[in-house]
Please model this.
Amino acid sequence: MSNIDAQELSKFADLASHWWDRNGEFKSLHDINPLRVEYIENACEGLFDKTVLDVGCGGGILSEALAERGAKVTGIDMVQASLDVAQLHRLESELNIDYHLTTAEDWAQQKARQYDLICCLEMLEHVPDPEAIVRACSEMVKPGGTVVFSTLNRNMKSYLMAIVAAEFVFRMVPKGTHDHSKFIQPAELIPMIERSGLQAKEMTGLHFQPLLQKYYLSDKNVDVNYFVVCAAPELSTQK
Model:
């Protein structure tokens, strides 16, 4: 339980009722979700019938989209109010998703080498020890499986875009959603990934065009939001 920020839990608990309001506090997540799902599906060469873990699943926006593509999805989170919303919406959507109130570290003790794909999106910047999450994901993915992380880079551009523009100018996310000091530079995340035993395979940036109000993916830069796709070594190559 040491890798939990009580203020972060409280913040998301207060917002829990808004998870499925597509024009509300989590509008930006709904807007980027099709891009995220397509990118993830391509990264793991299809989702159908694969066992998937959504770490920090919140209200289930990503979990449901993955399940709709035929994946067998488990979602974990430490905000009960968010999970309650996810459970209710799962029933409305008639999807088979397994939700649990637990940390990635605790879940890893029960579920070593269980998942074809692990997604940990927009979560690492909300915990005190992101490397512990990376390590837990590496322990839960099957040999040869895929882990996808997304987070925010830490620099002046990301401060202007993700804090000033997103929270105050365009009001894309609630004020106080992010703490810029917790953003993670690729030069910090990649060593975490390598120390965990995973292999970083590719990186791409998530970008926003304010005039068109449109999101897109491009590997030209990873200055603000970015994804890293990782591969777990095949069993024969593991020590």
Observations:
- DSSP finds eight helices and eight strands in the chain.
- The chain has a mean pLDDT of 94.
- The first helix runs from residue 6 to 15.
- The radius of gyration is 17 Å.
